[in-house]
Specification:
This protein is mainly beta. 10% of the residues lie in helices and 27% in strands.
């Protein structure tokens, strides 16, 4: 027998190669991926969050002199989706939607100034009445009772404008107190 360092090195290398070859192998198989999406609607661009605290924006009637008389119109703008009209997006499987708008904080106030079942209030207690409608033609007012109104949805999950349109109709010719008049409405979407 040969007992040389070269032979020992050769045997050790051969044993290591055999050990490595016996440990080599592989396994194949399948890995599943899944995600469940639920049907629903959201303010376009909004992160998911509480269903009772959505940001639907502002009905901004602009800046007018305190002596203005006439009709001013507004649509909801600047909601969670950013600048522009407030947009709603529903999944394609949502086939119907209802909207309700409450009476706000000052229902029935300011009738001597103009027409409207809701009213914006100046901090000092002056009121400017207004109305909110479910259609841009402003023919169907939302009931102050919070009753629901059915609205049309965009086809195939497309975005559509929040169907809340505001109208101020100041009929009093005289000036009213100057300042920023405001009100808060609770809007609820159902599907």
């Amino acid at each position: 027998m040969m007992n040389t360092p070269k032979f020992s090195f050769f045997v050790a290398t051969l044993l290591l190669a055999c050990a490595s070859a016996s440990q080599a192998g592989g396994v194949g198989g399948q890995l599943m991926a899944q995600m469940t999406l639920t049907g629903g609607c959201a303010v376009s661009g909004a992160a998911s969050g509480s269903a009772s605290s959505a940001n639907f924006g502002t009905l901004d009637f602009g800046v007018q002199p305190s002596t203005f008389t006439g009709v001013l119109l507004a649509t909801a703008n600047g909601g969670a989706g950013g600048a522009g009209s407030t947009q709603i997006v529903c999944s394609p499987d949502v086939s119907a939607m209802s909207v309700s708008v409450n009476a706000g904080n000052n229902p029935g106030q300011g009738a001597s100034v103009g027409a409207g079942t809701r009213a914006m209030r100046l901090g000092t207690g002056s009121y400017l009445p207004y109305e909110v409608y479910s259609d841009a033609a402003m023919t169907s007012a939302y009931p102050t009772s919070g009753g629901v109104v059915g609205v049309s949805l965009a086809a195939n999950g497309g975005a559509f404008t929040l169907p809340v349109f505001g109208r101020v109709n100041k009929t009093q010719a005289g000036a009213i107190a100057s300042g920023t008049y405001a009100d808060t409405l609770q809007v609820t979407l159902g599907w």
